[in-house]
Hints:
The chain is an alpha/beta fold. Helices cover 46% and strands 12% of the residues.
Amino acid sequence: MHISRVTFDTVTQRQQLRRLVARDGYTIVPGAFDTLTARLVQLAGFEAVYLTGGGYSRANGYPDMGLLTLTEVVRWVGLTVEAVDIPVIGDADTGYGNAVNVVRTVREFEKAGAAGFHLEDQLAPKKCGHYEGKAVVPVEEMIGKIKAALDTRQDPNMVIIARSDARAVEGLDSAIERVNRYLEAGADMGFVEAPQSADELAIVARQVRGPAVANIFEGGKTPALPAAQLQAMGFRLGLYPSQIHRATLFAAKEVLTVLRTDGDTSRIEHRLVTFAEREEATGTARWRMLEHKYLDIPPSSGSVDNR
């Protein structure tokens, strides 16, 4: 497995995300559920990574029901920004409260280094956008949150994505109208969550009056259309929040089954990354170099084999 590192020279992550949003075409942004998987997204050659709140909740043993706090999520954002060079898009849920809470949320996301984030109009505590039983706040309340986010943001390059979950509650037309109101209030991108067909996706891309986000969540309410089709519709950004997490769960269950049955994993060892590949994914070489620079430890000291 060859892994190459993507760099953007002196261009900041926020400036790079702005360029991705502004250019023609469709950008695939995989979702990571922890910092290591965010590094894998970069090392695979993608231009941005999405830190899915649902994935992080599930990685910590919770369903996606707004059970994690701002402090927990922001720590994850900060660790990930430090670990990758590509833009990091965060999931700010409902802003963790009302418009005043959004002020604190934006401050913390900005200090953590997020290149952008999405803010949604669900009633707190929120639920996964593809769960039943959602509720949304009044439009004016969400507009207040958008304005609070804009007034708080210090770096104008940080991208604010306005998401509406109203499709399941008030219908598609209402969800699109809400997103357009949020864009008029100053949000940078529009995100209608959980359209229920290809036709609805096409309507969203056509009627949202700004750069539009698609959320490709297999097993949910939205069909997983090919990227080329979503680009042709006019979507600018595609979030893929669950694919890596689902793959990881599948692989872990398979390994555990073999280990329990056989007493070892030799039967599937050829399908696992090597020790050296894992060290490459975690950037061990860089830390070895710093040891050599500051501690006078030879670069080869502590080297690992290629198992």
